[in-house]
Amino acid sequence: MKQFLRVAWVVMRKDLTVEMRSREIVYTTVFFAASCVLVFAFALVREGRPLEDASAGILWIAIAFAGTLALGRTFERERHTETLRALMLAPSDRPAIYLGKLLGVLVLMAIVEAVLVPMIGLLFHAPVFARPLWLAALLAAGTLGFASVGTLFAAMLVRARSRDVLLPVLLYPITIPVIIAGVRGTAAIFQATPDEPMARFWTALLVFFDVVFVTLSLWTFEPLMTE
Amino acid sequence: MKKTVLLLVLLVFLPGALLWAQQPAAPQGDFVPLSSIPQTEQLPAAPMVIGAYAFVWVALLGYVWSLWRRMTRLERELADLQRRVQKHEGS
Amino acid sequence: MTRIFVPLVIIAMVMFAFAPLVVASAPLEQTMGLVQKIFYFHVPSAMLLFVSAFVCGIASAIFLFRRSAAADRVALAAGELVVLFGLIVLVTGPIWARKAWGVWWEWDARLTSSLLLWMIFVAYLMVRRFGGPGSEKLAGAMALFGMANVPFVYVSVNYWRTLHPKTSVVMTLAPGMRGPFWFSVAAFTILYLLLLTLRKRLEDRQAMVEQLYLAVEE
Predict the structure, then answer these.
(1) Which terminal residue of chain B, N or C, has fewer Cβ atoms less than 10 Å from its own Cβ?
(2) Residues of A with Cβ-Cβ distance to B22 under 8 angstroms
(3) Do residues C113 and C149 lie in contact, with contact meaning Cβ atoms separated by under 8 Å?
(4) Domain assignment of residue C96, yes or no
(5) How far apart are CA A96 and CA A91, in angstroms?
(6) Neighboring chain C residues of B41 at a CB cutoff of 8 Å
(7) Is residue C22 in some structural domain?
(8) C5 lies in a domain?
(9) E strand or H helix at A189, and its extent?
């Protein structure tokens, strides 16, 4: 167990160290997410001002799009430098490698969300600091659900054809329930009087999804990555 | 490793129980029942039932037909290939 | 090949021919009237949709963990049938809904999750077709997630307030409706088994053809 966690930690550190050197994926993904939100802010207007009710939905759409992009780019880098094969050859538990990659993606997404949330608050006048803990819980649980399936599929698609278009095609039908739960929970928090029981319900559902998805992913990562 | 997985699977029941205890409090939408539908809104039911039934038949038969077509084509290819292999082995 | 299934095919055809009579003999439902008869093919199709998703998921798991090519072929057959029966459910449902609820579609928990389940298996077929080499494994993972989705779809109608009737309806059917309903279920199940077997045989033939091509190359 300790060995398992150590391997995951090492893989995550490797990813983050490489990323910190160029910061390429962080900058471009954050910029993409921000542009996404701006597009929505300009496209969805009523009487010349952005649609305030749409803030929760737009936040999660931006997370989904940016997440897909980040996943694709992270594994593209692995493919380009052939390090994935080296990782697979290492004598360590395959699921530990998956976990390490997942943690790296989560850190990246956390940075993106740290930029997105204030932007949403600013552009759509959403009360993002009304219930910060609930918002953080929703974002954490939702991002984990999305990233867990995404990491699995992105890793598998590294060697597939049409990988860029296949990732969203495969990922979205499975993770839409996660996004829906995230949106509904966030919308409950963004109401004039935050609806905490609703937020609790949706967070519990998200945790449920997370457990199912992470378990399935850990279980299937090994047979999927072996030739 | 497997024990960890099992533990995670067991954890499924925990949030499941959490969920069980909490039903969504707010209504999803308000539906006001009508005692009778106004004349303009009434649709004839028979075309709907027939249409649905017809669609089921079309879908099922369409699938069977596509299977049939692929099967005959494959059988032909198979026979042809078997002939070629036999010729190979013969020569 | 079809010779083997002749008795079953005949039974299935006879059952389907009789189905309109059987369904017509069922009593009319109080509020929905005639259009409720769609129930007799909408619900069995939905049941087989779930069963097929499970077959596909389990077969995919066997393929992934035991490297069984035969299991992969069963998974493909079951995957196609999920899409077929899903299409039936998603078309007959809205037709019924238009009359019973006044709307073709509602974005509630049951309908949305059913649509997503169907889309997962459409993606399954797309990956197998366009994914290139090694896509069977990827598709297998999709099928596993799809299978995990089924209980959620089933239960969603009980936990959320939706227009869709709850799962308790089937077990509490009026006596006059039970006969026709289970008759339909039987007819659809036989049909499903036939289609699954036929489709798997098609894949077996395809595998044989590919092997022979390799033999001829040499």
Answers:
(1) C
(2) 197, 200-201, 204
(3) yes
(4) yes
(5) 11
(6) 102
(7) no
(8) no
(9) helix A163-190
Residue ranges of the domains in chain A?
Answer: 2-225
Token pair in block for residue C207: 């595998």
Q: Do C163 and B31 touch (CB under 8 A)?
A: yes
Largest CA distance in chain B: 84
The pLDDT of residue C1 is 46
**What pLDDT was estimated at residue B49?**
82
Q: Which residue has the higher pLDDT, A53 or A149?
A: A149
Q: Do B5 and A208 touch (CB under 8 A)?
A: no
Residue A99, CA distances (Å) to A94, A215, A225, B32, C2 in order: 9, 11, 14, 50, 49
Least confident range from B20-29, C115-124, C209-218: namely: B20-29
- Secondary structure class of A45 (helix, strand, coil): strand
A214: its two tokens: 């992470």
Full domain range(s) for residue C135:
40-167+177-217
C29 part of a folded domain: no
- Tell me the residues of C at the A interface, defined by beta carbons under 8 Å apart: 64-65, 112-113, 116, 119-120, 123, 126-127, 130-135, 137-138, 140-142, 144-146, 148-149, 152
A7: its two tokens: 């391997």
> What tens digit of pLDDT does each residue of B19-44 get?
555 554 444 444 455 555 555 556 67
Name chain A contacts of B5, Cβ cutoff 8 Å.
215, 218-219
Three-state DSSP class for residue B28: coil
Backbone angles phi, psi at A49, to 5 degrees: -120, 150
Q: Kindly provide the ipTM of the predicted complex, given to two decimals.
A: 0.84
Q: How many domains does chain C have?
A: 1
* E strand residue ranges, chain C: none
Per CB-CB distance under 8 Å, the chain B contacts of A141 are none
Distance from C-alpha of A88 to C-alpha of A84, rounded to nearest angstrom: 6
Given 3-state DSSP classes, what are the helix, strand and coil percentages for chain B, each rounded to the nearest 5? 75, 0, 25
Express each pLDDT in C151-195 by its tens digit.
Answer: 888 888 887 878 888 888 888 877 777 888 888 888 889 889 989
Q: Which helix (H) or strand (E) segment is A202 a member of?
A: helix A196-225
Who contacts B16 (Cβ-Cβ below 8 Å, separation ≥6)?
Answer: A208
Is the Cβ pair A173, C131 closer than 8 Å? no
Give the number of A-C residue pairs with CB atoms closer than 8 Å: 66
Say how far residue C94 (Cα) sits from the centre of its chain: 17
**CA nearest to C65, candidates A220, B6, A218:** A220
